[in-house]
Amino acid sequence: MPEQKPYRLKSAVKEDFDKLRNYDAGRDMYYFHRRFIRILKELPKNENVMILDFGGGSGLFTSNLMKKGYTNISLLDLSPIQIKQAKDKGLTNVYCGD
């Protein structure tokens, strides 16, 4: 069986998100909050649980988790632009890479 290629190359995804100077402004916040509530139901009640926000972008999920009391969160994203936006929100434990 031939090796399956990813749907989109990592470099193309990074390039697209690097173009977004204000990712949060273009979000459908109603949809975001519905997803966020669904995710909260799946998380442990222990607010010290370790969470990795993989592909966390501008930190919208991470910042909202922190508002709910979760403290042990790391964010990882490919885009330096998105990482800057997360850091501009005051988030720590924010990493750029894959």
Give an overview in words.
The chain is an alpha/beta fold. It has helices at residues 10-18, 29-42, 60-67, 80-88; strands at residues 51-54, 73-77, 94-96. Strands 1-2-3 form a three-stranded parallel β-sheet, covered by helices on one side. Helix 4 (80-88) links the parallel strand 2 and strand 3 (94-96). It is globular, with a radius of gyration of 15 Å.
Secondary-structure element order, N to C = HHEHEHE
Share of helix, binned = 40-55%
Strand fraction band? Answer: 5-15%
- Let me know the number of strands: 3
| Strands in their spatial order, largest beta sheet | 1-2-3
Q: What's the pLDDT, averaged over the residues?
A: 84
Which parts are unreliable, with pLDDT below 50 for 5 consecutive residues or more?
none
Span from first to last CA? 27 Å
Which class best fits the helix and strand makeup?
alpha/beta
Radius of gyration, in angstroms, nearest whole number? 15 Å
Number of helical stretches of at least 4 residues: 4
The major sheet is characterized as: 3 strands, parallel
Q: What is the global morphology?
A: globular
Brief summary of the model shown:
The chain is 41% helix and 12% strand. It is α/β, with parallel strands linked by helices and 98 residues long.
